[in-house]
Every structure is written in structure tokens, then in C-alpha cells.
């Protein structure tokens, strides 16, 4: 059965600049600067890399503080990427399974789904807390396919970050890149590149999967 899996950050919402701002402002006190390689990665892996001398509890505290600050500054501005709701409606009308597969914490996923009032469209929601390894490992997308009862080769992923694209490819899934966070030339490993969801149809998605 066909399935479509959406990353969250930079896909459901165009929040890259708010994450950048939250990261820069929250971690400036530690002398840390965000780099493109950090995008799309799970907080657990990232905090361990940035703060190798701190313990796991401290890593969790640092990540939670940054994410709470992000939600605070983004809440007044949150909106879906253009065409998202219409595409979700079309996928449902065509009986295509839909999941969220995000390296973000559950608090952020719930924040986006509830603020946008789109939770009812998704059959499955998978966060980094549900798998052993975050992106770029394929675990999140493989778990999504498993819970949807769909074979990976019948799944298509929407991604904006290199870590997520590599995760989807490692899971043997098709990938559509969306240019919210990176320019087109950085997304060349994908099956198709779009600027937003007004540029893709359910018919095209089916054609890419098959």
C-alpha cells in the first residue's frame, strides 16, 4: 500500500529561520554557532557532540531549553507550508496512508500538529524517541513504514534537510526535496524538488513511487 511520510521541521512548516534564531540566541552563551550539518539531526546526538563533557541529563536539559525557546518565538508566526493542507486532503481522498517522521522532540511535533490543526490527517506519528538512531540513520522512516504496514519501496518521503534525505534513501524510499531550508542544488539526490506543496499532485506522487 502506498504511503507518504512527512518530515516536520521545514516540511510541514517553514520554520528553519526560527530554529536558527533559537539556536543562535540560546547557545550563544556557550560560544556555539549553528552549521548546515547540524540541521535535521536529533537533539540527543547533537548535544552529545556539542557538549562532550556533559552527561546525558544535562544534554536533555540543554535541548529542552532550546526547544522551549523555539516554540515561544515561533508560536505567533506558525502556519503550514503553502499547499500542505490541500495535499493532505487529496491524499486522504485517495486512501493513501500518511505519517510524520521527525527527528524533533515529541513536544515540537505536538506543537505543530495541534497549532495547525492537522493531526487528524496522519495515521502515524514517529519521533526520535521511538527509535534507537535519529536521522541520517533510516530508523525513523523504517519505523514509520512498519507502523503504516507499508513496504519501504512503496513509501515516499518529503524532506528539506540532507540528514533526512540520506535517512530516506538509506530506507530505500523515494524522496521529494522541498527548498525551505536549502537551495535546489543541495537537493539533487532526491527524485523531485519542489518549493512548496502547490507544485506536487497525488498523481505525480504515485508515479514517483511506482
Structure explained in plain terms:
By secondary structure, the protein is of the alpha/beta class. The chain has two domains: 3-14 and 79-209, HAD superfamily/HAD-like (Rossmann fold); 16-76. It has helices spanning 16-27, 43-50, 56-74, 84-93, 106-116, 139-148, 162-170, 202-209; strands at 3-6, 97-101, 124-126, 155-159, 174-178, 192-194. Strands 3-2-1-4-5-6 form a six-stranded parallel beta sheet, with helices on both faces. The radius of gyration is 16 Å and the shape is globular. The chain starts with a strand and ends with a helix.
Record keyword descriptors for this entry.
about 210 residues, alpha/beta, Rossmann fold, 2 domains, globular
Concise description?
With 210 residues, the chain is α/β, with parallel strands linked by helices. It has eight helices and six strands; from the N terminus they run βααααβαβαβαββα.
Amino acid at each position: 500500500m502506498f504511503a507518504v511520510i512527512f518530515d516536520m521541521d521545514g516540511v510541514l512548516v517553514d520554520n528553519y529561520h526560527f530554529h536558527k534564531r533559537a539556536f543562535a540566541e540560546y547557545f550563544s552563551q556557550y560560544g556555539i554557532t549553528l552549521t548546515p550539518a547540524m540541521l535535521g539531526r536529533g537533539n540527543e546526538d547533537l548535544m552529545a557532540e556539542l557538549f562532550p563533557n556533559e552527561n546525558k541529563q544535562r544534554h536533555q536539559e540543554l535541548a529542552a531549553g532550546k526547544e522551549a525557546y523555539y516554540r515561544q518565538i515561533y508560536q505567533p508566526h506558525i502556519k503550514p507550508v503553502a499547499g500542505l493542507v490541500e495535499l493532505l486532503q487529496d491524499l486522504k481522498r485517495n486512501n493513501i496512508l500518511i505519517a510524520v517522521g521527525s527527528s524533533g522532540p515529541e513536544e515540537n511535533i505536538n506543537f505543530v500538529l495541534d497549532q495547525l490543526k492537522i493531526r487528524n490527517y496522519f495515521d502515524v506519528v514517529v519521533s526520535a524517541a521511538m527509535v534507537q538512531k535519529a536521522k541520517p540513520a533510516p530508523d525513523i522512516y523504517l519505523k514509520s513504514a512498519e507502523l503504516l504496514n507499508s513496504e519501504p519501496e512503496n513509501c515516499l518521503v518529503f524532506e528539506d534537510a540532507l540528514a533526512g534525505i540520506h535517512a530516506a534513501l538509506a530506507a530505500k524510499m523515494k524522496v521529494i526535496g522541498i527548498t525551505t531550508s536549502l537551495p535546489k542544488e543541495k537537493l539533487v539526490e532526491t527524485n523531485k524538488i519542489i518549493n512548496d506543496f502547490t507544485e506536487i499532485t497525488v498523481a505525480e506522487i504515485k508515479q514517483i513511487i511506482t
